Amino acid sequence: MYYRFGKVFHFLSVLLFIFSFLYTYSSLSELVVLEFNDEGVAVKSMGKNAFFYTGLIIFIILNILLLTPAKLIEQQSTKNLKRLFPIGDRFRDYMLTWIYSFVGIVNLSLSILGLFVHSINNQNEISTGSFAFFFYLIPIFFVVWIIGLFRILLKKFTSIQTTEK
User: Fold this and answer.
1) Partners of residue 46 on adjacent β-strands
2) Which of 24-33, 54-63, 93-102 is predicted with the least confidence, judged by mean pLDDT?
3) Positive or negative CA dihedral for 108, 110, 116, 117?
4) Which has the least CB within 10 A, 14, 99, 113, 130?
5) Given pLDDT bands bounded at 50, 70 and 90, which one contains residue 37?
6) CA-to-CA distance for 124 and 110, rounded, in angstroms?
7) pLDDT for 106 beyond 90
8) pTM for the complete prediction?
9) DSSP 52-64
10) Do residues 13 and 104 lie in contact, with contact meaning Cβ atoms separated by under 8 Å?
11) Rounded to whole angstroms, how far apart are CA atoms 99 and 121?
12) How far is CA 68 from CA 42, 74, 77, 88, 155, in A?
């Protein structure tokens, strides 16, 4: 039942995204700058409402697409999933935990990116240099989670091979 910890982490990451995104949205001007050139002139920008709706749509689509496999495994929706991840199997629990925590990492990354946009547009509050640590942390999280996925799948396939012999 470790996947419940993954669900809690996912839920907390959704709350973090909502609070950070609303904070970012409320502090932006009508023109949201996404990139400056070397002279400090805005190169890429978009409207505040377009930024808000684009961010929400990206968040919702990513969460739906990434959580669909977990819901299919939980509900045992196909015969192959029932056979591959039966209820009570420890690899089912590991896989569900991985999926929910991976979506939590994606939501955490989106929160950091939203706060980075906030720092670009409000240089007097937060400097963009203070986000350098987080931008190195995001790929490290993704690499660790992908390695974890391959480890889970490798153990599952070896357990299938040993039961077939």
Assistant:
1) 32
2) 24-33
3) negative
4) 130
5) confident
6) 22
7) yes
8) 0.86
9) HHHHHHHHHHHHH
10) yes
11) 34
12) 39, 10, 11, 20, 23
Dihedral sign for Cα 27, 17, 34, 46, please.
negative
Helix, strand, coil tally for the chain in percent (to 5): 75, 5, 15
Candidates 154, 140, 137; CA nearest to 94 is 154
Alpha-carbon distances of 104 from 50, 66, 109, 110, 141, rounded to whole Å: 24, 10, 9, 10, 11
DSSP-based three-state secondary structure for 86: coil
Checking DSSP bridges between strand 31-36 and strand 42-47, what pairing results, if any?
Answer: antiparallel
The token duo for 63 is 């969460």
Q: Distance between CA atoms of 106 and 111, rounded to whole angstroms?
A: 9
Write out the DSSP string of 107-147.
HHHHHHHHHHHHHHH-TTTS-GGGGHHHHHHHHHHHHHHHH
Strand partners, 33: 45
Residue 8 tokens, joined: 């809690």
Per the CB < 8 A criterion, the answer to whether 117 and 27 are in contact is: no
Closest CA to 17 of 111, 113, 84: 111
Kindly tell me if the per-residue pLDDT of 131 is higher than 80: no
| The residue to which tokens 């931008």 are assigned | 135
